[in-house]
């Protein structure tokens, strides 16, 4: 019997390295779902080439093409709805989403941030961490809420911070962990193992992980 897989769309603005990491884990069966579209606000985003190479439709909804943010987000919602996804994945999407779209996909939209939230929200989180002098940094996958970088945490992974680090060096080290954490969080979502209680995400541990998988 064929089992219908869940679907997700990815929103990205730039090079799409997390997008590629996610596609790779779809391809090898780790993520039990199908990516049905890439949507970008940047017509020059390298993520478009990654989508093309994977045979995934790429949609450009350029912010500059609209008179204001409301008009842009109306078009963005319409584009997402074309694919009726179970999950919306923000993988390097560099715009702050408005309340309407966040509410519409509440509990079904995830983002990754290059810090151990709630520390170092917003832009240049890696540089913020270095300047603050922390000894441990990392990344956070979280559900998206109306408050920036403040949604319920799904997964966090850590890296050390060394005295000779700058923002770029730390960014590269964190990115390695992002490429592990994001697919893992998406996998857990499609396995039905995530429950949001208040601002706490509980992970069902009763389902045994597949052998050799980094659950």
| Mean pLDDT value | 94
Order of helices and strands: EHEHEHEHEHEEHEE
User: Helical amount among residues, as a percent range?
Assistant: 25-40%
Q: Provide the CATH architecture of the largest domain.
A: 3-Layer(aba) Sandwich
Which strands sit side by side, in order, in the main sheet? Answer: 3-2-1-4-5-6-7
Strand share of the residues? 15-25%
CATH superfamily of the largest domain: Formyl transferase, N-terminal domain
Summed up, the domain count is 2
Shape: globular
In the predicted model, the low-confidence regions spanning at least 5 consecutive residues are none
Tell me about the largest β-sheet.
7 strands, mixed
Between the first and last Cα atoms, what is the distance in angstroms? 26 Å
Name of the top-level CATH class of the largest domain:
Alpha Beta
Radius of gyration: 17 Å
Give the total of beta strands: 9
Alpha-beta content class: alpha/beta
Q: What is the CATH topology of the largest domain?
A: Rossmann fold
Count up the helices.
Answer: 6
Enzyme class: transferase
Domain Formyl transferase N-terminal: 8-186
Keywords: Purine biosynthesis, Transferase
Pfam family, one: Formyl_trans_N
SSE map:
Layout: E1 6-12, H1 17-27, E2 33-40, H2 47-53, E3 58-60, H3 69-83, E4 87-90, H4 99-104, E5 109-113, H5 125-132, E6 136-143, E7 153-160, H6 167-190, E8 194-197, E9 200-203
Helix pairs in contact: 1-6, 5-6
């Amino acid at each position: 019997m064929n089992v219908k897989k869940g679907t997700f769309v990815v929103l990205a603005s730039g090079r799409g390295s997390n997008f590629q990491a996610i596609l790779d884990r779809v391809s090898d069966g780790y993520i039990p779902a199908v990516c049905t579209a890439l949507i970008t606000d940047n017509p020059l985003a390298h993520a478009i080439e990654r989508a093309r190479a994977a045979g995934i439709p790429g949609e450009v909804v350029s912010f500059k093409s609209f008179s204001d943010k409301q008009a842009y987000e109306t078009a963005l919602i319409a584009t997402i709805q074309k694919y009726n996804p179970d999950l919306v994945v923000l993988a390097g999407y560099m715009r702050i989403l408005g309340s309407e779209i966040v509410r519409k996909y509440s509990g079904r939209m995830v983002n990754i941030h290059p810090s151990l939230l709630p520390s170092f929200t917003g832009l240049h989180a890696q540089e913020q961490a270095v300047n603050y002098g922390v000894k441990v940094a990392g990344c956070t996958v979280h559900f998206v809420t109306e408050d920036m970088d403040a949604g319920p945490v799904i997964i966090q992974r850590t890296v050390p911070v060394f005295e000779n680090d700058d923002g770029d060096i730390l960014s590269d080290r964190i990115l390695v962990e992002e490429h592990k954490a994001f697919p893992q969080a998406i996998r857990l979502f499609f396995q039905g193992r995530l429950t949001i209680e208040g601002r706490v995400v509980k992970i069902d541990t009763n389902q045994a992980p597949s052998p050799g998988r980094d659950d």
